[in-house]
Amino acid sequence: MLSTYVGLLLGAALTLSGCALFAGRAPSPGTFSYTGSMTVSRSRHTATLLQDGRVLVAGGFDAGSNDLASAEIYDPKTGTFTPTGSMSTPREWDTATLLQDGEVLIAGGAVSPGTPLASAELYDPKTGKFRKTGSMTTPRMTQTATLLQDGSVMVTGGIADQGGQDILTLAETYDPQTGTFRPFGATAARVDHTATLLDDGRVLLSGGGTDDNDVGSAEVYDPTKRAFALTGSMAGIRSLHTATLLADGRVLVVGGETNNGGSDRTAEIYDPATGHFSSTGSMHDVRRYHVAALLPNGLVLVAGGVDSNGAEDVLLSSAELYDPKTGAFSTTGPMETGREFFTATTLGNGDVLVVGGSSQASAELYRP
User: Fold this and answer.
1) What residue ranges define each of the domains in the chain, with the CATH number in brackets?
2) Other CB atoms within 10 A of residue 311 CB
3) How far is Cα 204 from Cα 252, in angstroms, rounded to an integer?
């Protein structure tokens, strides 16, 4: 009788533990674990850490390839997603930028069948609603958007046509005070590139291109001169890579797609002090469409993506950590499932929230 009673208690404890974990309890160190799922599957969506610590997940497309206007909020305290207001326009491959006043600027993207959008809207966390704002000067998808130190948002690159041939060189900025975009300069033609705000307020643009014309060049935007200038080139030609600002001010560039359409495992470091890239340790797995997130301990988590070097693409669940002190990658616990076209957001408590991708509604937490 006593053993039966103890068994019931243990079973109840395990059940409660599992429920708490699914509801948002952080996983064990160095591992991923499921948290609450979204209300709908999403890929090519955006995820934005709000000032109050919650995460806004918006747009993308669902398992049926339907473009989404809906959005939802992830609350780290409860580990659950709840619907919030919807955008005025369904969109994927758009950008989401947290503004200094706490609102989120959603810009551009595409609507099926791959038609780029010029429209933009603002999400207000206080009201839970989106509202329209001024449109960009040209339609764009797969562009970058970077919050500058003066509070404006710089938009670069992207594709302006459904066929993907019109790769943009025109850059523009969004002024939150007036709610308008205006053109201001030109870059090299870039798509699937990265834009990284440096500690001194400049912005590093790296790589990008198309399957037939990926580039290894990089540029730096100087807001004091309001001009772009070429900087040292990357050691490799890549697009669909990640670029992460390290705690020491350097930038880690990882993986991506090579000029022959395959996935890459190499990585390099950009030093703003010298304006040069240098090779660093390589990943254990080749990756494109992966994610990278800076952890509170200074390491960089790189996870998921696609290995495209074989006869068929292989979806990856593996993850690894880059240590800037040693310049080496080491493996860490894998994700619960393989993912591409997903997002990774470092939360206020240091955990990393992985959301959606690969026609999934599920989400996971990584504890450093």
Assistant:
1) 199-334 (2.120.10.80)
2) 5
3) 11
d(CA 360, CA 364): 11
pLDDT in tens, 19-53: 334 444 546 899 999 999 999 999 999 999 999 99
Is it the case that residue 16 has pLDDT exceeding 70? no
Asked if 285 contacts 219 with a C-beta cutoff of 8 angstroms, the reply is no
* CB contact at 8 A, 352 and 35: no
Tokens 């590139």 correspond to what residue?
193
**Cα–Cα distance for residue pair 57/345, rounded to 1 Å:** 10
Q: Cα separation of 71 and 125, whole Å?
A: 12
Provide the mean pLDDT of the chain: 91
| pLDDT tens sequence across 87-143 | 999 999 999 999 999 999 999 999 988 999 999 999 999 999 999 999 999 999 999
Distance CA 341, CA 361 (A): 12
Token digits of residue 104? 């989120």
> Residue 12 to residues 9, 17, 79, 291, 335: CA-CA distances in angstroms?
5, 8, 21, 37, 27
Are 205 and 218 contacting, i.e. CB atoms less than 8 angstroms apart? yes
Please list the helix, strand and coil fractions of the chain in percent, rounded to the nearest 5, in that order: 5, 40, 55
Q: Which residues touch 333 (CB under 8 Å, ≥6 apart)?
A: 30, 31, 32, 319, 366
State the pLDDT confidence band at 258, using cuts at 50, 70 and 90.
Answer: confident
The pTM (predicted TM-score) of the whole model is 0.92
Cβ-based burial of 315 (10 A; exposed 0-12, middle 13-18, buried ≥19): middle
Q: How far apart are CA 73 and CA 38, in angstroms?
A: 9
